[in-house]
Amino acid sequence: MILVTTPTGDIGRRVLSHLRAADRAVRVIARDASKLPPDPQIDVVEGSMADAATIARALPGVTRVFWLPPGDPTLPSAEAAYVGVSQAFCDGLRGSQVTHVVGVSALGRGWSRPAGHITATLAVDDMIAATGVHYRALACASLMDNIARQAAPIRDLGRFFQPTPADLKLPHVAKADVARVAAGLLMDMRWTGVEALPLLGPEDLSFNEMATILSEVLGREIVASELPMEHFRQMMRDFGTSDGMAQAYVEMLTAKNEGMDHLVTPPSRQDTPTTFRTWCETELRPLISG
Ligand SMILES: NC(=O)c1ccc[n+]([C@@H]2O[C@H](COP(=O)([O-])OP(=O)(O)OC[C@H]3O[C@@H](n4cnc5c(N)ncnc54)[C@H](OP(=O)(O)O)[C@@H]3O)[C@@H](O)[C@H]2O)c1
């Protein structure tokens, strides 16, 4: 039995779909079962993944787990949103039948300064590894899907905004690729030990280059605008992000601007082939055109 967390989220629902397409026995933890696809073969444990009683109901009979700490922006800190949410799970792993865990993590191992969400995410990787399971941390670059949150300004203003120099080239990976790699690992138990698997997407791109691709796909000029970091922090707070999580965003994006995502060079980027152009054509354009 494979346990899938966040089965109603963007990555988790794709992982679930790959596993069910391969007819795997799956249990999910979901806060609201009515959001799940109608599939009688999915065993549902309703509750919060942060809750020890929910974890105790979810783990019996499970040998593999897809673990994605969602990073709730309303929690007081990145520590609470990642480490806190994963504590009961890590406690439950000890003494369970789980042998293999695949977790959604991030690039940044080896960065020496505070990096907000990344620092907390890497602490979760260490907690899971310390339980003794075989673990693959999917060390994701920034998700290209983040741009979808700006569908409204792209449509209405022809602009998107980021607190990053628009000519800085960074790796960006598609959620679809992350989910496919995760599902592949969950269905192939030949791997052992603890490793981080960098998922960087097919190429590094600057936000200016992304704007050019967006302009070509949408058939109108789209511009990438750099926001001052303090303006970005205020914007996050205006959207309901807690002060601690806004600080974590600032730390993370500052670290990315300073080179954190270039600490690793994977031997190959073939695992994550979705280009930004393909993502724009298949995912963003339908969203923009409604
Ligand atoms: N953004 C980036 O550039 C980046 C880079 C690297 C890694 N990541 C990681 O990628 C992840 C985002 O994944 P995503 O886009 O798939 O997320 P998403 O679409 O925002 O989905 C979040 C999911 O988490 C569920 N959830 C939230 N709190 C829960 C709780 N307490 N108990 C059970 N379920 C809960 C939600 O369920 P409901 O349906 O009940 O709301 C939903 O299914 C984050 O963890 C982040 O750390 C992001």
Walk me through the structure.
It is a single chain. The chain is 41% helix and 19% strand. Strand 1, helix 1 and strand 2 (26-30) form a beta-alpha-beta unit. The N and C termini lie far apart (38 Å). The strands form three sheets. Strands 3-2-1-4-5-6-10 form a seven-stranded parallel beta sheet, with helices on both faces. It contains ten helices and twelve strands. The protein is α/β, with parallel strands linked by helices and 290 residues long. The structure holds NADP nicotinamide-adenine-dinucleotide phosphate. NADP nicotinamide-adenine-dinucleotide phosphate (NAP) binds at residues 6, 8-12, 29, 31-32, 35, 48-50, 68-72, 104, 106, 117, 121, 140, 142-143, 146, 175. Residues 6, 8-12, 29, 31-32, 35, 48-50, 68-72, 104, 106, 117, 121, 140, 142-143, 146, 175 line the site of NADP nicotinamide-adenine-dinucleotide phosphate (NAP).
Category by helix and strand content: alpha/beta
Catalogue the ligands: NADP nicotinamide-adenine-dinucleotide phosphate
Spatial strand arrangement across the major sheet: 3-2-1-4-5-6-10
Kindly state the percentage of residues in helix. Answer: 40-55%
CATH H-level superfamily title of one domain: NAD(P)-binding Rossmann-like Domain
User: How large is the count of helical segments?
Assistant: 10
The helix/strand order is EHEEHEHEHEEHEEHEEHEHHH
CATH class of one domain: Alpha Beta
Shape: globular
CATH topology of one domain: Rossmann fold
- Describe the main β-sheet briefly: 7 strands, parallel
Q: Could you list the spans in which at least 5 consecutive residues all have pLDDT below 50?
A: none
| Corresponding CATH architecture of one domain | 3-Layer(aba) Sandwich
